[in-house]
Amino acid sequence: MNMKIHNLIILGLSFLLLIGEWGCAHHAIAPSPLPESMQQQLGKIGVVVRSTGGQKTLSTPEAGRLSNIRRGAGVGAAMEAGVGAQGGVIALPAFAVLGLLGGTIYGAMASEPWEEQDASFRTIVTELNLNRTLPERVAAFSRLHGYEIAHLSTGTPEQPQEPSRYAAARRDGIDTVLEIQDLTISLNPAEYLVNPARRLILSVRAQLIRTADATVLDDRIVTDKLGPALGLNEWTADHAVRFRQEAKQASDRLAEQLVTEYFMVYPFYERVTSEFFMAVHLKGLRPLYPGERPEFPASQVINEKDISRPIPNEFRIMAQRADALQPVLSWEPFSGPRVTYELKVWRSGRLGPDVLVYSRTNIEKASHKLEITLEPSSLYYWSVRAHFVEQGKDRITEWSRRSVKPSLMAKIMTSGIAALMPDPVDEGFYVFITPPPRSQNPKPAASQSRWFPWEN
């Protein structure tokens, strides 16, 4: 009787998972641009950054000694609890307490000082003057693609006697203002360790405001998450030159993203291809060469002795080896009028894409031979998007990307447990590995410290 009930539960759970699988495959789509009917009502558009009192342009969450103490304690307890579990239930609490104490002490002693670095970052943000350069880039990118957006020199102060704070702009012929607020550069922890690597993220709140009556036509948060995740020493090296470069590049990308999201983006429907235990969720143009196929492990591709840097998880599961250091990358063609492609290649860091090493636009075919020589035995990310013309207007697809999730079969065979586990590969760009040199013995991948595994 109990076995029958157990089988019925599994059958019911499998049915629910099947419904969920279908739902994910057919309904997960990206946000669309403004409806054409609304775009036609916008008239002449101006863009401005509006600063608010007390706004913090730089954010460094979970920075400082107390945060490192918490992380050290948590990771230390978890690590030692795993060791204690091998000795039985009785030993587990004792080992966890020892790990908690050791991690707490280590987090306090090893914590990197933030005061001086924080001041340096804020000085650079002030020097970059993103409140001026961001709207300038928005205006320039919009003109390049046939969407005229004028740069308003400064945010107009509110005037109580006026029906709209942009009444003066309306008298100058501006019908709609793209108002950029809350511009924030964040260095967010990218891992749960003492002194974690931090990813640079730039975000703004954007509103389309009708100048006639101050009606907010659209309100959204736009975020650039393509910045690298680096340690504090990497962000601050050479007078923080990397921070300066990445903040400027993030600002340029965000400006383009604002125009693209509002007027030009072509969202991809999610396509799901299931293997036995894993399913690839594709949003974009499928990579043809180097292709990707989930395998556990990709032992025929990755040799730990050949790779000279730590290996992110997506390479272990998805990567194929290119046949040359100047490979011909190819992808699924996009169907549309006057199609060209844009291609980018990034060198891999420890936690994802690091340095952009290659960028090309106006590629006419769905393949391209790199015009630079890549490093041997190295890990690279790449992505492509299509530019095309629709009804006389420039359109741009999203950057192609994919994720890997447990397949329906995996969920059924594990009675739903697989659905509760982290995805094997988070959503991200495609990956490949370059061939090794003919006569060279690269250093093996770096590993965590044996004594302090919770340290970055």
Number of helices: 11
CATH-level-2 architecture of the largest domain: 2-Layer Sandwich
- Tally of domains: 3
CATH fold category name of the largest domain: Double Stranded RNA Binding Domain
* Rg value: 25 Å
What's the CATH class of the largest domain, please? Answer: Alpha Beta
Strand content: 25-35%
Q: Oligomerization state of this entry?
A: single chain
Describe the global form. Answer: globular
Query: What is the CA–CA distance across the termini?
Result: 53 Å
Structural class: alpha+beta
Main sheet specs: 7 strands, mixed
Helix amount: 25-40%
Name of the CATH superfamily of the largest domain: Lipoprotein like domain
Low-confidence stretches: 1-29, 445-456
The pLDDT mean sits at: 80
Record field, number of beta strands: 21
Quick structural overview:
The protein is α+β, with helices and mostly antiparallel strands. It contains eleven helices and 21 strands. It has helices spanning 2-27, 36-41, 65-85, 91-110, 115-128, 130-144, 167-171, 232-264, 313-318, 408-413, 417-420, and strands at 45-49, 58-59, 149-151, 176-189, 198-210, 216-224, 229-230, 265-266, 271-274, 278-283, 287-289, 320-321, 328-331, 340-349, 352-363, 367-369, 379-390, 393-397, 401-406, 425-428, 430-433.
Plain-language structure description:
- The chain is built from 11 helices and 21 strands.
- Helix content is 34%, strand content 27%.
- The N and C termini lie far apart (53 Å).
- Helix 3 packs antiparallel against helix 4 and helix 6 crosses helix 8.
- Strands 1, 2, 3, 4, 5, 6 and 7 form a 7-stranded mixed beta sheet that branches. Strands 8, 12, 14, 15, 17, 18 and 21 form a 7-stranded mixed beta sheet that branches.
- It has 3 domains: 176 residues, Double Stranded RNA Binding Domain (2-Layer Sandwich), CATH 3.30.160; 47 residues; 165 residues, Sandwich (Immunoglobulin-like), CATH 2.60.40.
- By secondary structure, the protein is an alpha+beta fold.
